[in-house]
Amino acid sequence: DAGVTQSPTHLIKTRGQQVTLRCSPKSGHDTVSWYQQALGQGPQFIFQYYEEEERQRGNFPDRFSGHQFPNYSSELNVNALLLGDSALYLCASSSIQGAANEKLFFGSGTQLSVL
Amino acid sequence: SQQGEEDPQALSIQEGENATMNCSYKTSINNLQWYRQNSGRGLVHLILIRSNEREKHSGRLRVTLDTSKKSSSLLITASRAADTASYFCATDRGANSKLTFGKGITLSVRP
Which residues of B touch A23 (CB under 8 A)? Predict the structure, then answer.
């Protein structure tokens, strides 16, 4: 049983560019949440998707957008990249039936470096 | 913003010793969870305690919750080198609400 998979594992971009990160949730999970983790900090909630809709959003600008597909996989898009967007981006999946914020399963993350 | 604040920020112990990590939070919560992260990669869920519970055990883990003091502690007994990791507490304010993580504690267990 595959867990949460994220791609790519590493990415280098320059300021102003756009990036798309991808996530496949654990089998049987229907809810995907995205987190940003800066070096030495805890994960910060970006947004959560369920039934192909953004259900909750953290304190992130509109440059951060996402999408969930019918197979529950998800994408995180960041436009007009800033140096401060450099971080580890984590995808977490859960089941709405088990309460979507309990016992999250995390992927290994995408390390984004903005130069 | 961070809801939880872990204490201490870093902890170094000898293998076999117990490790105690603390988490304080600011607002009322529904659940509190602890996660482990190895080498800046994905987080692994360790244990969840609900606001109406005071103590839970899972293997070598013991977590307590004091809602009057808005604090929780995680005890790892008989630590092993493999326990070396960063540990985060995370809180939520209701079913399906977002999780808010603290800054984490770095635990080093010396062989």
Answer: none
Phi, psi of A96 (to 5 degrees): -65, -25
Exposed / middle / buried, residue A103 (Cβ in 10 Å: 0-12, 13-18, 19+): middle
Token pair 């985060």: residue: B88
Decide if B42 and A90 are in contact by the 8 Å CB cutoff.
yes
What count of other Cβ atoms lies within 10 Å of the Cβ of residue B101?
A: 24
Helix (H) or strand (E) holding A92: strand A87-94
Residue from A19, A23, A31, A26 nearest A7 by CA: A23
Give every CB contact of residue A42 below 8 A, 6+ residues apart in sequence.
B2, B4, B88, B90, B101, B102, B103, B104
- Bridge partners of B86? B37, B106
pLDDT tens track for B94-103: 877 889 999 9
Structure confidence by residue, pLDDT tens digits, B67-85 = 999 999 999 999 999 999 9
At B60, the amino acid letter reads R
Q: How far is B82 from chain A, CA to nearest CA, in Å? A: 18
Mutation for testing the B interface, residue in A102, A105, A108, A111 having most B CBs under 10 Å: A102
Distance from CA of A74 to the nearest CA of B (A): 17
